[in-house]
Amino acid sequence: MFPQVPQAQATFPVTTATQASQLSPDVWATLEGDQVNANVILPTLYKCLSREQSGRPTQGHLWVVVYSPAPRSRVLYVASCTDGYQGKYPVFLYTTTPPPSLRHDHITVTAPLRSIAQALWTVVGSRRVYSVFGPTVLAEVFCRIWTGMTHIGRIAQPYYDSKISFVNLRTFRDASDQRISQGRIAVRPATSQDIPQIAQLCGQFAGESPPFVLTQIQALQEANYLFAHKLVWVLTVTRNNLPEVATIVAFTRNSRNAATITKVFTPVQHRGNRYAETLVREVVRYLLNQGGKQNVALYVGVTNMAANVYRRVGFVGLEPNAPPVDGVDRWVEYGFNRDHVDLGHW
């Protein structure tokens, strides 16, 4: 039995849903109107809705929606606590307020996030919330509220301190890599023969992303999933007449008009050859053209030199000392004391 937490003062109406089909049309319209920033929530909603409509409803999901006060009630926040193909996701936070306008303010931030925290504690309990990912102010305020409510402390260093960026046909920077035409490298969707090598790279990628590491079996499961759902491309080099996967790019969170690149990895022995730039560019080209996407998004660590790779492909707002760009904001993932939570994976 979860503790019964009193509802916050009803300044901001709150609704919860455990099935995607329970969400109101205004929530769907809000998220579909902002598919880049909603990329951590909307794709899972689509998958859950599809299963529900086919008579296979899912379990273990929760969405919390906070509205502005009446009479002009509109969606202000959407939080999700859902499962992915590898495990349970963090709590994801989305807001319709541009992140630069957010402040550590009780009326517009603290009170709504307190309502979200109360709903999470009541429905899923404290052990389920192992981390939170969202615009920096939201993540920080949520952590303060959650720790005060559950007495589970936040881990000081973020699991992930990042910036969201995007590219579209207008910003895309085309270039050709002569190594492709010369046959020195190949860029293509993955085939079944690539699965063992993709699994190795997935495992290495996770090894550089603690605490979300993978066993060999889990890495192989991920590689099979990515291939089966056509979510991974490879760049190969040929050695001794055998193709070797030198870089992988996966894009696992996709909605109608936006795709999100979620994994780019080149093992150490192949770094310094701009393989990642070549492969990312070709994947973006495919997603914007044959894939019919209006935007391709990704998150990049604020201290990650890979930002230069993405900038050269056309992802905006990543230049050093770049002026602010609408939609390019800091997002952070904070974890909670791992002695008191059940760690998931994403």
Automatic annotation (TrEMBL):
Top-rank taxon: Eukaryota
Gene Ontology molecular function, alphabetical: acyltransferase activity, transferring groups other than amino-acyl groups
InterPro entries linked: Acyl_CoA_acyltransferase, GNAT_dom
Entries under Pfam families matching the protein: Acetyltransf_1
Domain N-acetyltransferase: 185-346
Protein name: N-acetyltransferase domain-containing protein
